[in-house]
Amino acid sequence: MLEKALKGSRGYGIWVAFLLLLVAIGFFFYLKQLDYGLGITGMSRDVSWGLYIAQFTFLVGIAASAVMLVLPYYLHDFKAFGKITILGEFLAVSAVTMCVTFVFVDLGRPDRAVNLILYPSPRSVLFWDVIVLNGYLLLNIITGWTVLESDKKGIPPPAWVKPLIYLSIPWAISIHTVTAFIYSGLPGRGFWLTAIMAPRFLASAFASGPALLILFCLILRRFGRFDAGEKAIQTLAKIVTYALATSIFFVLVEIFTAFYSQVPGHMQHLKYLFAGLEGHNTISHWMTVSALTALAALALLIIPRTRQKEPLLALACCGVFLSLWIEKGLGLVVTGFVPSPLERIADYTPTGPEIAITTGVWAMGLLLITIFYKIFVSVRNDE
Amino acid sequence: MAPTRREFLKIAGFSAVGLVIPVLPSRSLAQTGTPAAGGLSSPAAPGPLQALTAKRWAMTVEPKKCRPGCTDCITACHLEHNVPDFGNPKDDVHWIGLEKVAHVFPAEAHPRLSESITLLPVPVLCNHCENPPCVRVCPTQATFKRPDGIVMMDYHRCIGCRFCMAACPYGSRSMNYRDPRPFIRKINPAFPTRTKGVVEKCNFCEERLARGILPACVIACKDKALAFGDLEDPRSDVRLILDKGLSLRRRPELGTGPQVYYIL
C-alpha cells in the first residue's frame, strides 16, 4: 500500500516537499546540537527540561486520544466512527513517533540511549514510559495497518486483531498516566506533586486530540475527497466539549487548593504561571492567551448552534489545540522548575536552534500523518 | 593541609586493621565498626594509607564558623574534581555553593530573623540522601547509592536525560550543557574530567576516602565549619557535633533523609 503515498496532486507534492525542508533544517540544527551540546538550547541548571520534553508530554496526549474513537466504535458499536478509527490510530502512530524523537533529541548522550535497555531500571518511571510508549506504537501500527489492508481487499479484518484493539484501549490510558507519573512522583517539585496530574493529562488529551482529528477530517473533506460524515464530526465535537470542560475544571481545582489553603509552596508556582513572579512574566502572558482561548472555545462548543456550524467548530478546535498546547507544551514543564529548589527564578527562553529542531520533529510527524492519510484516502477511494 | 590529631589516629587505626586483615573487603570492614581506638595503642603503620570506611557517611556544617567572603571549600572541591567554570548561570556546573539561610531553610525563615543569621553564607551540596529520589528515577542506574550511604554517579553510563535533576529537591545536580574541558582552570590528572551531556554532583570525595583522606572541602576549611564522619560511630566528629545541640536538615518533610546536618 505504501506506493500510494508516492503519487499525488501538485499541492500534495508541494506540501510534502515543504515538510521535508523543515525536517532537513531541524536535522541540520540537531547536528549542531550534537556538536555543541544541549547548551545550544535555552535550558539551564535551574530549568533543566524545556521545549523538547514539553512537546513530548503534549504529544503523548494526542497519541492517547485515539482511544476516543476506538472505544465507542469497538466497545459500543458506534458505527459513525467506523470510517475514521484508522485515522485515530494513524494519528497515534505519528504522535508516539514524535514523542520518542523528542525524548531522543533531549538526551545529553544520545549515543548511550541503548543503556535504557542494557540496564533496565523498573524503579524509574521513565523505564515504564519507554515500555508503554513503544508498546502503544506497535499496537497501533499493527491494528491500523491490518484493518486498512483488509479494507483494501474488501474483506473483514482478521479475528486476531480484535484482542489487540481491545488491549489498545487501556494501553492508551496507561501511556498518559505513566507520563504524568514522571512529574507527579517527584518529592521536591510542588507544582507537579499532585494526584490530579494524571486525570488532568487525560482530560486535556481527550480535548486536544479529538480537536485535531476534527480539523484533519475537515481538511480531508476539502482536499482529500474523503467525508468522515456529519455525525462522526459532531460526536467528536461533543467529546471535545466535555473533555475541555473537565480539563478546565481540573485546573480550577488545583488553583482552589493552592490559594484557599494559602500554602506558599503551592501558590508560588501557580502565581508564576498565571501572573509572573518578580517581573518574570513571559510564561504568564502565554497562559493568559491559553486561558482566554480555552474559555472562548468552550463557549463556542457548548452552544449547539455554534458547535454545529462548521467554520465556527473549526475555529473552536483551533482554539482548543492552541490553548492546550500552550498549557502542556509550554507552561506545565517549565513552571515545575520555577522557582528552583533554592528559590531562584530563572527565565527560560527557547533558542533559535531549539525551535528549529522542535519544528523539524513536528514536521516529521506531520509528514507521517500526511503519508498515512494519503494512503488511507487512496484505499478508501479505490484509486 | 596537615590532618588533625584525631584524623591521624583514625587513619592509623585503619592502617593497623589493614595490616592484620589485608584481604578483607571494605564492606565487611565497615561492619566490624570503626576501629579508630585501635590506633591509640599501635604506632603509625608504614605503607599506603588504608581506605576510610563507615556504615553511614555524613557531614555537619556550622555556617556560623564561616569567615565572610571565604570560598575555600568550593575552590578546593572544584579543583580536586575538575569542575568547570563557565562563568554564566545558564551553563553553570558546581558541586558546592553558598546560599542564604532563607533559601536553604525557607520553612525556618521569617522577617525578624537576626542579621547574624540571614547574612550567613550556607554551604550547600549533595545531601547523600538515605532515600534518594535521584536514584529512584534514574532509568539506567547511572546514579546509585553505596552501602555506606554515598550517592554516586557513573559518568560512563549517564545518558543525560536529566530526570535526576528534576527529582533532586535540593538543586544539587549540574548538567554539562557544553564540553567542560576547556573551562577547567587546572586539570587534576588524578580525577576524571566529564564529557558534555552528562550530569554530575558532589561525591563526598569517595576517591579520597578510598585513599584514606578526608573530603577536600573538610580539609580546606580553616575554620572547621565542616566535619565529616561515620554517623553510626558515636565517637565520630559528626556525632560529637550533633550531640551538642539542635541541628537542621534541608526539607526533611520530603522523606529523603538528607545526611548533611546544619548547626545554626
The oligomeric status of these chains comes to heterodimer
| Reported CATH architecture of the largest domain in chain B | 2-Layer Sandwich
Q: How much is the radius of gyration of chain B in Å?
A: 19 Å
Return Rg of chain A in Å.
21 Å
Number of helices of chain A: 14
How would you characterize the largest beta sheet of chain A? none
Low-confidence stretches of chain B: 1-9, 11-47
Number of strands of chain A: 0
Number of helices of chain B: 11
Strand proportion of chain B: 5-15%
- On the 0 to 100 scale, the average pLDDT of chain A is 95
Mean residue pLDDT of chain B: 86
Shape of chain A: globular
Helical residue percent of chain B? Answer: 25-40%
Order of helices and strands of chain A: HHHHHHHHHHHHHH
**Name of the top-level CATH class of the largest domain in chain B:** Alpha Beta
Secondary-structure element pattern of chain B, one letter each: HHHEHEHHEHEEHEEHHEHE
Describe the overall structure.
The complex is a heterodimer of chains A (383) and B (264). Chain A has helices spanning 10-36, 51-64, 67-76, 85-105, 115-118, 125-153, 161-184, 197-223, 230-261, 264-274, 282-302, 304-308, 310-336, 352-380. The radius of gyration of chain A is 21 Å and the shape is globular. Chain A has a single domain (2-380), classed as Formate dehydrogenase/DMSO reductase fold, CATH 1.20.1630.10. Chain A is mainly α. By secondary structure, chain B is an alpha+beta fold. Chain B folds into two domains: 1-53, no CATH class; 55-262, Alpha-Beta Plaits (2-Layer Sandwich). Chain B contains eleven helices and nine strands. Chain B has a three-stranded mixed sheet with strand order 8-1-9. A two-stranded antiparallel ribbon of chain B has the order 2-3. The relative contact order of chain B is 0.22. Residues 1-9 and 11-47 of chain B have low confidence and may be disordered. The interface between A and B is large, with 46 and 49 residues.
